[in-house]
User: What shape does this take?
Amino acid sequence: MVQHVLVTGGAGYIGAHACKVLRAAGFVPVAFDNLSTGWKDAVRFGPLVQGDLMNRADIDAALAEYKPVAVMHFAALSLVGESMKDPGLYWRVNVNGALNLLEATVAAGIRNFVFSSTCATYGDQDGVVLDEATPQRPINAYGASKLAIEEMVRNFGAAHDLRHVIFRYFNVAGADPEGEVGEQHRPETHLIPLMLDAVAGKRPALTVFGTDYPTRDGTCIRDYVHVMDLVDAHVLGLRWLLDGGEDRVFCLGTGSGFSVHEVIEHSRAVTNREVPIVIGDRRPGDAVQLVSGSESAIRDLGWNPARSTLRDMIGDAWNWAGKPGFAE
Ligand code: UDP
Assistant: This one.
């Protein structure tokens, strides 16, 4: 029997990679995307429903047509800097979109929900390793909107028996090593693709956002996780729910933090080329350090983030950067 999974944001970076591994695991991923930041061309592993989470009828129609066994909710605005400039946009789109989706999911009788949350819900925590029990105190509107949705998912879980897994992502990087899908944003704001663009001469230089942070070299520290490892965890989380597992939160990172300067160093080793950089100001909303404790996912889901080395993440991103990318 065909088991469909509704993947909101299935035409985006992480959603498209999730569709690939869902397909490989025997599910049929139905990408639900308004194509505001996603790419039609990235939907390669199942049908595309072009719809908008702000429009409840679009969601109802997709759920009625495909009767998915689960919903995976990736679709969201996700840029820290943008969220600081226009918090209303983040509250409106992320929170209202999730509310419509949760109400439609429950109304359609679907019982399994996987939600993409973020380490941005933690805020600045003075150097501690962040795990599922760490209190959440977001310092930007993006993180605040995601924390609100986590609460919403828990409320719907309690009231409507919607079984759920919430993943809190650390910094997702890399690309499908087979090059079928990869990272492509418009505009690009993320460190590794911007750095590789500078290496390839597609932009003049990478701006390092602040070198006066209280870290070992003055730049922010992040925990980078390979997108393929991240989406593998989603398939494990889905199976966990389908096998009757309890509601859970899992952090998805590696437990190792790297500074912006250290990422640049690794890039030199992978590409054999210099990274042109300029030093800029701090970016508003950036936490000093975000590093995960990921033991729970490894222990309980059997997750194995084996590709999450900087060498593999930068190498796979570099491989993708040499391809034509998704057509407009
Ligand atoms: N960063 C940077 N220059 C850039 C983009 C990002 O120095 O052009 C830094 C940013 O301040 C943060 C890290 O790289 O410390 C990762 O940023 P990114 O936007 O990739 O992910 P985020 O941590 O915001 O989710």
Remarks:
- The mean pLDDT is 97.
- The pocket of uridine-5'-diphosphate is lined by residues 80, 171, 189-191, 194, 206-209, 220, 222, 260, 283, 286 (CB under 6 Å).
- The CA atoms of residues 59 and 75 lie 13 Å apart.
